[in-house]
Amino acid sequence: MSFRHVAVCSIALCLAACGGTKLVKNAPPPPSNQMLAASADGPLAANLDWVIVRNGPGTWARNADWDEYLLHVRNTSDRPLHITAVTVTDSLGHRAEPLSKRKTLVKASKQTVRRYRDSDIKVKAGRGGGTLIASGVGATTLGVGAAYAEAAGALMGGSASSGAGAVAGGLLIGGPVLVGLGVVRIVRNAKVDNRIQARHSPLPLDVPAGAEASLDVFFPISPSPAQLELAYDDGSGVRSLVLDTQQSLAGLHLPAPDEPTAPIATAGTPQSTAAPVP
Questions:
Q1: Mean pLDDT value across residues 213-223
Q2: Residue 263 lies inside a defined structural domain of this protein
Q3: How far apart are CA 17 and CA 164, in angstroms?
Q4: Residue 202 lies in domain
Q5: Has residue 45 been placed in a domain?
Q6: How much is the pTM?
Q7: Domain-located, residue 201
């Protein structure tokens, strides 16, 4: 192989390696016939329809370091209510609130990794022995594309940049190329950030009497989450509705059962009444 070919391949590797998070063209929608958890309490009923994880079913951003929860809620009363907050509690009992910016999501996910590392538990976005179990009807294995993405990242780690200053066949791989790659990454990140903010449901969310609404909320990666909680006000005070996700999201972002790992401290069992939204 000529030096020119080596240089061209190096540029290609640089382009691939620096891509980071980017939009997926013609991304298929998440499964529409699934329901991961449901609960009802007084005037509010809620379904957790799906959780989009890194390179999992329904993903629209490749190599995303966050989770996207898709919910449907229904006001079963004759007066309006306001959903004021949504939180997810992971397997170590940490409660996370929704975030609407790519940079803050990635930063918070890194904090999650460090927190679990302190407990001798290895976690990784979109990877693990977890499944999305749809109300006991079936399951979809997560992280199918994550292994490929990880392998590609490992292949490119360090090798592409090591030749960045080489001169091959008169072709310089240096400052201008690296600047160009940086611009590509910035543009891709901006597009993903815009998409997150467009999809994210702002809170509080008003739900008129007898009406239904969709909730699309983004969280840092939450390993094997125990519950999802919605706080709401129906005019008589703030109340909460808990969806138990210990079974449907068990093992999410955690090693598979056959992989050695430290014991996981699970959060307390939340109480909820399963009642799907009609």
A1: 97
A2: no
A3: 13
A4: 3-244
A5: yes
A6: 0.73
A7: yes
